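Appendix B. One record, verbatim.
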Amino acid sequence: MISLILQEFLILPLHGRTYTWYKPDGGCKSRIDRVLVNHNWMTKWSSSYQKGLRRTVSDHCPIILEVKVRDWGLKPFRCLNAWFSHPNFKEFVSNKWVNYRVEGWDSFIVKKKLKLLKADLKEWNRQVFGNLDETIERHKQSIHELDLIDDVFGLEDIEIVKRNEVSALLLRDLKRKDSLNFQKALCNWIKEGDANSRLFHNYINRRRKRNEIVGLEVNGEWREEAAEVKQENA
């Protein structure tokens, strides 16, 4: 029963202390108290964590659930494998690279062109890929509406062609979404193309929690506020 529960829920990381229960005689201690959340929660509030507070007369420590978004600065640029599935991607990159006009020594030119290309790729990604989830839902709705018409009146040739075209677009975007999830999850033991969005999201959420920076030690003091850390290192 416990194993089934753990498959459906995630245990949030505990900050502030290691244990939440202490036997009065000091004979043992344990982390009994904890917050469980499901995977939908982690998708919306991936920065959630539980914090252990000071205890008083009780042998249990109170814990609270906190959601805190920390802005540590700019995120590194990452090339997405799904871009290569687009027929115009390589041509886009090649044309942009050739048309950049930068003067200077070779290493400076390469550095400057990469910076310009990064900005153009971000904009291209926004325009071409956009929000995949919304696009996929539109494809599904279009197919559903045509199916309802087919149920009652049948489809004309042009409508049959349209449904096949939308189905092809849906399959393409689903593959792109799986490729994005695969890359984010970094599950090398799973074959790319295995359509298991829930599994991918589970690994993405766990990886985010494992890699999340919740605080830094600055001059011997633990700081959790990003603004304070930035100020100390300015």
